[in-house]
Design a protein that fits this description.
The chain has about 130 residues and is mainly α. The chain has two domains: about 35 residues, no CATH class; about 80 residues, RNA Polymerase II, Rpb4 subunit (Growth Hormone, Chain: A, Up-down Bundle). About 65% of the residues lie in helices and about 0% in strands. Helix 1 packs across helix 2, helix 3 runs antiparallel to helix 7 and helix 7 packs across helix 8. The longest helix is centred in the N-terminal third of the chain and has 14 residues. Pfam families: RNA_pol_Rpb4.
């Protein structure tokens, strides 16, 4: 088998979710493995932070993050799984200690909290559940 046209692009979880919703809502019903994969993937994605994202919030967040010279892969990882701590940013951004100051890391966290307020709410809910009584 030969690849005639090489189309290589990375999709965000939001884009995958929207595409799968279109497949699910189409009049043409799919059977077998495609239906199962579509159902299971939709169920998973709807229970992650991507279920609360909008195309506008992602677009505005990307514009705000453009000042930090993050590469496409790092931006995709940040959008797919928005970090809520400085440690998570260090794990996502390669050589973050050299590329970002502590103030810049805090600015990124503020930007993410502004554009994706649901992640801050989820974190506070998790902290309340883990607190010993």
């Amino acid at each position: 088998m030969e690849i005639v046209t090489n189309n290589c692009a990375a999709l965000s979880n939001y884009e995958v979710l929207k595409h799968l919703q279109v497949i699910k809502d189409s009049k043409r019903k799919h059977k077998g493995q495609l239906a199962t994969i579509t159902y299971e993937t939709l169920r998973y994605l709807e229970n992650t932070p991507v279920g609360e994202q909008t195309s506008d919030s992602i677009r505005e967040c990307m514009k705000s993050l453009s000042a930090f010279n993050l590469n496409k892969t790092e931006l995709l990882m940040i959008i797919n799984s928005p970090p809520i701590t400085a440690l998570e940013i260090q794990l996502i951004v390669e050589d973050s200690e050299e590329r970002l100051s502590e103030d810049q890391v805090q600015q990124i966290l503020v930007i993410l909290a502004n554009h994706f307020p649901h992640i801050v709410k989820e974190q506070s809910d998790n902290d309340n559940e883990e607190a010993p009584e």
